[in-house]
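Private note to self, pasted from the team thread so I don't lose it. Backbone tokens:
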């Protein structure tokens, strides 16, 4: 495990860069991304400070070994108390942090949401909710093991961003990121071979199945590893990915151990944004103790997709929101 984050993995904004980014963010937020497309923000993207823009575009090529990029020194504006319930409304729709996430997501690809996750919200609030401390999702506070986001979905995000608005009280809750490209060398040939075979299934995460009756559905069969060195990719959730093949179960255990050994512990403080390549790195969270006093840990999350298929775009219920799985199951 890497307790510290190498500086070359990220960028710390200067005071001048931070001022430019906040001005762009506030202008972006007034354009209401849920009613627009990425093209509506293209003029602002060109004004992102040059070094930052160049480094993010380089990260978007998918050649990263670590699978994440850490941006520090972003403004977060005035904040109310950390919410204690689900749903939007804690921050104004035109809050600058929504603009920040929109700009980064649209530079990497296109900001998107999912019709059957949080009603298609484009910006997700990540904070503990009373009574849900044990849930393995963004409303919990227990440890959340390694997973690629929306592992069950045929149109998984290419990137996700986590922007820290408020740190936990003890300052110990870490976002844990582990790259398959760093872990790959720790796997045996036999484990690599079985992980590359379509003998695995991934159940829907609870964020997609809150209102579904009966057992949670699963994806179709899929490999966990695909691609070839040095460009290996991963589709894996330690909580929901399983195999009926005993060799597959053993290989999943070996992969989890390899990811643990190569994990980066990222302590996010207010103004830190970690961007994860969702096909290279799995991420998780260490446990923390919420107090529900208005000062609990609070992140904002976004998804970015490099390319939305034309057929999916035509089925979107509204701009940027991918159609429900019930409408596209079996298409991919």
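Design output:
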């Amino acid at each position: 495990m890497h307790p510290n984050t190498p500086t070359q993995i990220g960028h710390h904004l200067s005071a001048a860069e931070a001022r430019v980014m906040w001005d762009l963010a506030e202008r972006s937020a007034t354009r209401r991304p849920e009613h627009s497309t990425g093209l509506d923000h293209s003029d602002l993207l060109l004004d992102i400070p040059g070094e930052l823009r160049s480094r993010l575009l380089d990260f978007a090529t998918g050649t990263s070994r670590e699978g994440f990029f850490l941006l520090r020194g972003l403004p977060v504006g005035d904040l109310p108390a950390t919410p204690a319930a689900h749903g939007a409304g804690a921050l104004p729709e035109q809050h600058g942090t929504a603009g920040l996430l929109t700009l980064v997501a649209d530079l990497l690809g296109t900001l998107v949401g999912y019709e059957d996750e949080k009603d298609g919200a484009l910006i997700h609030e990540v904070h503990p909710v009373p009574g849900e401390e044990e849930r393995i999702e963004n409303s919990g506070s227990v440890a959340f093991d390694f997973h690629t986001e929306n592992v069950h979905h045929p149109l998984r995000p290419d990137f996700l961003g986590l922007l820290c608005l408020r740190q936990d009280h003890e300052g110990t809750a870490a976002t844990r990121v582990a790259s398959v490209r760093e872990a790959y060398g720790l796997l045996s040939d036999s484990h690599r071979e079985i992980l590359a075979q379509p003998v695995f299934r991934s159940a829907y995460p609870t964020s997609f199945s809150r209102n579904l009756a009966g057992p949670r559905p699963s994806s179709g069969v899929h490999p966990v590893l695909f691609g070839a060195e040095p460009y290996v990719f991963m589709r894996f959730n330690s909580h929901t990915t399983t195999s009926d093949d005993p060799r597959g179960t053993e290989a999943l255990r070996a992969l989890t151990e390899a990811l643990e050994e190569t994990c980066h512990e990222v302590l996010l403080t207010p103004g830190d944004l970690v961007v994860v390549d969702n096909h290279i790195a799995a991420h998780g969270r260490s446990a923390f103790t919420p107090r529900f006093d208005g000062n609990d840990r609070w992140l904002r999350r976004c998804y970015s997709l490099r390319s939305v298929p034309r057929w999916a775009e035509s089925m979107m219920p509204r701009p940027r929101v991918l159609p429900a799985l019930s409408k596209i199951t079996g298409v991919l």
